[in-house]
Amino acid sequence: MRLVSIRHVQPGMKVGRTIFTEDGKVLLGVGMTLTDRLIQGLQRSGIDSLYIDDPRTADIVVEDVIRPETRQVAVETIEKTVKQITNSNKLARKISLKEMGLHFQQAFGSILDDLMQNRQIVMHLANISTHSPSLYHHSVNVAVLSTAVGMSLGYNRNQLMELGIGAMLHDIGKVELPAEMLKKTERWNQEEMEAAKQHCILGFNILRKQHDISLLSAHVCLQHHERLDGSGYPQGLKGKNIHEYAQIVGICDIYDSLTSPRPWRKRYMPQDALEYLLGSGGHLFEHRLINAFRSHIAIFPIGSSVVLNTGEVGVVCRVDPEYCHRPTVRILKDGRGNDVRASYDLDLKTNIKLFIVGFEDDQLFSLGGLSESKTT
């Protein structure tokens, strides 16, 4: 299979990987044949790319680090909690939130079990995004990334549960922001940005009252926007005053936010997001946590279409964790843009004069400079 921009998807192509709605339901299953109507529906849903089956890349398998059903349950758990919190009936809200912690322990427990069973994939996460801009999917992505970092740091199961549940709920306070802000499709103005900073405190106040949710998980929600140099919010904490869990979630939150599309901007390339994070080491986040995160990220994900310095176009088919910037590429087009008669693989580790200069569809990505003001 290979990843294709929604702009290049044609009727008759077949879905290579499950596509979800923003609330976790299966929108299109593997093997479904795309029609004009379905493609238009995907565009309206904000999906900018999807995996398709292609005979030339039939042997390229993009493995899910968590099962589709695990993701679906996790997203539905977050959605259900959001509805409970926003229930206008105070008594009903109080009763329904009583088992909130138990539901998240079950949902994240399944995520953790999947990750434990797929340690080889976890060692180098190449593909976790659903290509949906949904807040719910973002929360699950951040939980998966954060847990991978925690596993690399040697966390035990209890620590991973605290970290993962905190990651799943790191943005839960946003549900108490004004509805018009949450529905807005333009970037928030300065006044709205200042109001949005309250989501950390709002979320903490929700979570600290739940007896089945660890106080450390609640502090992830409170502190995930704090930064080592004191430039973060809401408390302007510095250095060791910021819990390690919160730093990990802060790193993963930025990465997933940057590499996902927003209504007001395109996604950033994985290498640009990673470069930004590497540059933040020592003043926004601890170097060792950035390095632990970097060891799990493929900047050229399997299945993505890339362009070589020769002009040749191909699909990333294998990634060596030790040389993630020099994967093996299945060549589909020559330097003049013509389809090759027979595709072939080039291992960039051994072809040292060849290197990747970008993705085939640069229009998927924002190409401007990065600053933390752009990471939300």
Automatic annotation (TrEMBL):
Alphabetized Gene3D superfamilies for the sequence: Hypothetical protein af1432
SUPFAM superfamilies: HD-domain/PDEase-like
Residue ranges of every copy of the HD-GYP domain listed in the record: 113-309
Pfam families: HD_5
Cited InterPro entries: HD/PDEase_dom (IPR003607), HD_GYP_dom (IPR037522)
Domain of life: Bacteria
Protein's name according to its UniProt entry: HD-GYP domain-containing protein
Organism: Brevibacillus borstelensis AK1
High-level lineage: Bacteria, Bacillati, Bacillota, Bacilli, Bacillales
